[in-house]
Design goal:
The chain has 632 residues and is of the alpha/beta class. The protein is 54% helix and 11% strand. The protein has helices at residues 3-16, 22-35, 49-73, 102-109, 125-136, 154-173, 190-203, 245-263, 267-276, 280-292, 295-299, 303-319, 325-344, 354-370, 377-388, 396-403, 406-417, 431-454, 457-460, 467-470, 477-485, 490-500, 540-552, 557-563, 569-597, and strands spanning 83-87, 115-121, 141-147, 181-184, 206-211, 214-220, 226-234, 240-243, 513-516, 519-522, 527-530, 554-556, 610-612, 623-627. The strands form four sheets. It has a six-stranded mixed sheet with strand order 3-2-1-4-5-8, sandwiched between helices. It has a three-stranded antiparallel sheet with strand order 9-10-11. Strands 12-14-13 form a three-stranded antiparallel sheet.
Length: 632
């Protein structure tokens, strides 16, 4: 190869890295022509201050472009990151920006980081001091953990993981959320990397990595001829920021499994999933829930046993001191309701917790003596339950707005003012009615679906033997719950229905579909498709169809035609044909490819993102396009 051939070879490699600006290419070619000579080191290169400045600008531009890619993908909000966790290697710590560490690249990309947590071995302690000094000068606080153990053992990994867990706990207590934390695994100890990977999966924290490629060096021979050398050199201008999506996939799938199991009332499965994630608070809570909402307990039709189990459940949860703030917020409404139900323990008109009512009356009298002028039953109950449930940080607002409705307050006040041993309480707070409701949704409803298939009208008329049995002969259980169990109080019924379904405890998983500026994002599978780059062109009609389809998830033929009402029949049919063949078909192929790349689909599997009407065999379904529910 001649000199010009070497320059051409370098240019082709640089263009493959995304460089297209001719001025930038000339500067980079000149720089790397010198640097890629066999035996040459960076310090041997002679360039002017002006050229050095231009190289720095190109490098900063490269990192900024990586930031734009990250922001476009919308997997990480780089401006939102406040904390970075990483490790220290034995690499040189240089003041030259072109030789900066991967951690420094991450901090250049995430501009609002104020805290860095670093893990290092005793061999890297001097490097750590240099990094700390450098970051402190940029007003970034550095927290550290050193290990002098080189062996990669399960004991060391557990120890490191425990420290990471405590670190995350501290961050959460400071109000730092999972999407504000980043783990950079580009360099460092295997010990820390394994522990970090596991913690990331368990907590849904993003892990990133910087990739740089190597160019072969050139050996200068006689007669100005060049050949490829056995040496190679790392190209800092090739820096690529990579989000390790396997972490997101693994964590997201587990969260989806948790949500599905909660909806199916498979609480033991939820317990095992949280155990895998090492989220001990959730594991404890659902273990207790699985015992309270146990089908055997419901099939026993023994309200007394349920009463005892509810009391044990409430005591166990209120005795636990380690619930983090976010989880307290999730469970407090449910716990307030169950605490009141358990306290009054209403099984029948004469069968309720008389000792509790007697004790509450005495406390209310004491309260009135202390607050003679402003004694109010609502304030009394707020004070009473705030103390009783202090481990959940129950506030006045939680009790006044979310739970203590006027009917409940009025009935409790009447109970406390009544001299005789009698209680007044809305049926919505009856333990017996709650038990019947649980029997209904867990036992009767599944049987009802079987009954509709197997039972004849004559069999349905069998004599009812008890109030419990009645559940299994109702034709409309929803109506029965609302009218008989909750006194036709639809608002209260809906609230309690929501609490008992544990919908507040569902994990937040982003399943959104968005389409903007020719970029389609499918959050459930972390897929981003730039339609323009993929060669998919949409006219105004196609844009309108795509927008509405992603918003409503299904488009009827009538709705589709109304979108093209200004078009002639011929033009409409032409545009529809283009949408089917050049947009839907191609988009489906691209998404299948990306699903396979991300290991969501096997190579021999396929899954259409947009389904078209002609694929449907059911003639009475009048739709033109719909989004496959697996993507929603």
């Amino acid at each position: 190869m001649k000199r010009d051939d070497v320059l051409k070879d370098i240019e082709q490699k640089l263009r493959a890295l995304g460089y297209s600006d001719e001025k930038d290419l000339e500067i980079l070619k000149k720089y790397y022509f010198q640097l890629l000579q066999e035996g040459t080191r960076p310090n041997d290169i002679k360039i002017s201050e002006e050229e050095q400045g231009k190289l720095l600008d190109i490098y900063k531009k490269r990192i900024e472009n990586e930031k734009k890619k990250v922001d476009t993908e919308n997997i990480i909000d780089s401006n939102k990151i406040k904390v970075v966790i990483s490790t220290v290697s034995l690499a040189n710590v240089s003041s030259n920006i072109l030789e900066e560490l991967p951690l420094e690249k991450t901090l250049r990309l995430c501009k609002n980081v104020k805290n860095v947590y670093l893990f290092y071995s005793n061999e890297a302690s001097e490097k750590f001091k240099l990094i700390k000094e450098k970051l402190n000068n940029k007003n970034i606080e550095v927290n550290a953990r050193m290990t002098d153990k080189e062996k990669l053992t399960s004991e060391n990994i557990i120890s490191m993981r425990a420290f990471l867990f405590d670190t995350l706990k501290v961050l959460k207590e400071k109000g730092i959320k999972e999407d504000e934390i980043l783990i950079d695994l580009t360099v460092g100890m295997k010990l820390a990397s394994i522990a970090m990977y596991k913690i990331a999966v368990e907590n849904g924290i993003k892990i990133v990595n910087w990739k740089e490629i190597y160019f072969s060096k050139y050996k200068k021979n006689e007669n100005e001829e060049y050949s490829l050398s056995n040496e190679s050199f790392r190209i800092v201008f090739s820096a690529m920021f990579e989000i390790i999506k396997e972490i997101l996939v693994e964590n997201k799938q587990m969260l989806l499994d948790i949500n599905a199991s909660i909806k199916r009332k498979e609480y033991q499965t939820v317990v095992s999933l949280y155990k895998k994630l090492d989220r001990k608070n959730e594991e404890l809570f659902f273990k207790e829930i699985s015992e309270l909402f146990n089908k055997e307990l419901l099939l026993d039709l023994n309200v007394g046993k349920f009463s005892n189990k509810l009391k044990d459940f409430v005591e166990t949860i209120l005795a636990h001191k380690e619930f983090p703030e976010y989880f307290k917020e999730k469970i407090k409404n449910l716990m307030i309701y169950l605490q009141i139900v358990s306290d009054f323990d209403v099984k029948d008109l004469e069968d309720y917790n008389k000792e509790f009512v007697k004790e509450l009356k005495l406390k209310y009298e004491e309260y009135k003596d202390k607050n003679s002028e402003d004694a109010d039953v609502g304030d009394f109950l707020v004070e009473y339950y705030c103390k009783k449930m202090k481990n959940l940080d129950i506030t006045d607002e939680d009790l006044e707005i979310l739970t203590f409705d006027e009917e409940l307050l009025s009935d409790i006040e009447e109970t406390l003012e009544e001299e005789d041993e009698i209680y007044y309480l809305p049926e919505t707070y009856s333990l017996k009615n709650l038990y019947l409701y649980l029997i209904g949704i867990n036992i009767a409803e599944p049987l009802m679906s079987v009954k509709k298939i197997l039972f004849t009208d004559e069999i349905k008329k069998v004599t009812k033997k008890s109030i419990y049995e009645k559940l299994f002969f109702e034709t409309d259980l929803e109506s029965y719950y609302e009218k008989k169990l909750f006194e036709e109080n639809k608002e209260q019924y809906e609230r309690i229905k929501n609490l008992i379904s544990l919908s507040d405890l569902l994990e937040k998983v982003d399943n959104s579909l968005t389409y903007e500026n020719s970029i389609l994002k499918i959050s459930k599978y972390d897929i981003v498709v730039d339609l323009e780059k993929e060669g998919i062109k949409l006219n105004d009609f196609h844009e309108t169809v795509m927008d509405l389809l992603l918003k409503e998830e299904i488009l009827t033929n009538d709705k589709l035609r109304s979108l093209g009402e200004s078009l002639t029949e011929t033009t409409f049919n032409k545009y529809k044909s283009i949408f089917n063949k050049s947009i839907v078909a191609k988009l489906n192929e691209i998404i299948v490819r990306k699903l396979r790349e991300n290991n969501y689909l096997k190579m021999d599997e396929t899954e259409d993102f947009i389904k078209t009407r002609h694929q449907n065999k059911v003639s009475n379904q009048d739709w033109a396009y719909k989004i496959n529910e697996k993507f929603i």
